[in-house]
Model the fold of this input.
Amino acid sequence: MTRANEPSRLAMTQRPNASVYERLGVPTIVNAHTTATRLSGGVMRPEVADAMREATQWNVDMATLEARASELIAGHTGAEAGYVTAGAAAALLLGTAACVTGLDPARMNRLPDTNGMKNEVVVPRSHRNFYDHAVRAAGVTLVEVGLSDRYVGAGVRDTEAWEIAAAITDRTAAVLYVAGADARPPLPEVIAVAHAAGVPVLVDAAAQLPPAGNLKRFIAEGADLVCYSGGKAIGGPQASGILCGKRDLVMAAALQHLDQDIHWEQWNPPPALFDKGRIPGLPHHGIGRPAKVGKEAVVGLLTALDLFVAEGDDVRAARWTALMQNLVDALTGIRHATVTLIRGRHGATAPTVHLTLDEAAAGMTALDLVRRLQDGEPSVHANPSRVHDGLVLFSPVALQTGDERVIAEQVRAILG
Ligand SMILES: *Cc1c(COP(=O)(O)O)cnc(C)c1O
Done:
């Protein structure tokens, strides 16, 4: 491990601006996995970091800042309102809470105790994932629906919309839908049956960007609330996210998140986000208070969102593809492996490099290779999701330019 004041063994792999981590004695890593939270997300554009620094030098009213964020997010998404959260998971918590309480401050105060409230969330069984803990944290129970026969190969079907309709009762607060290229049933069918029963649909679209068109797609399809991660491809602060959707629901979420330590008489909320006439009083600090958002995070997210949309899918894909092509080129002729550039699906999602290891010839498994890269200096983190197929994956999304050469050096050092 390289410490401050100690000469680096691999001077050429030292990257610029690592000084704060050198001072702390914390080694930096190469993140070829994705914008994984465990690996600190990605590398922020200087324009975003500069905007965040500037934001810290002034004070603002947080409700006014979030109300302006609402207008800007509405512009990008087509939603009635939007809100900056501490991540997509925080947006899931706030969105669920909003569906449970509506605009009733007494209910807001009781969460996560949901006794006597609509406190069930219906979810297709194949959409269950470890982020839905954030939904359950609001005090609801998940009601799983359907069978995903297609995953085990026993059949071809997944949950169907009629099964969701059959599971909705007067206790249903929302339907949770986790968006994805392979997600079934189609979102419009789910929305149709949920809305027929008067139930809102909450869409987890945390990782569905790019394509940038997905900022508008789920709202256009009729979703009531949509959650995005700010710390993934948008390139905002690692702990930021977006909740957008119906005005009343976003208002209900904001009321359970913003600091409310103020006299009712002096509370003069910005009309872009709040309608004072709709509530009898202010709730206490709400269920979202432990996931608070600072002004610099709001400013950073908004700056990153503008840049993400302005860059566009084609330029972004070309930038990422060039990085991955560099990696493929640098690995040309590598022993015991074939290296392939896989283009992103739909031409908009990120390309990946697949390294297929000849495990017998290399005398190691793909998981061994992942572990040895991780133990290297600097530590290189590949995506291990396909190691059981003998594949090691590399993603460009969180890389710095030059990282691809570091990765190639290390793979060559290990495979010979
Ligand atoms: C990443 C992710 C989340 C969490 O996003 P954060 O912004 O890290 O809170 C939630 N749901 C899904 C499907 C994700 O991929």
In short: The two ends are 23 Å apart (CA to CA).
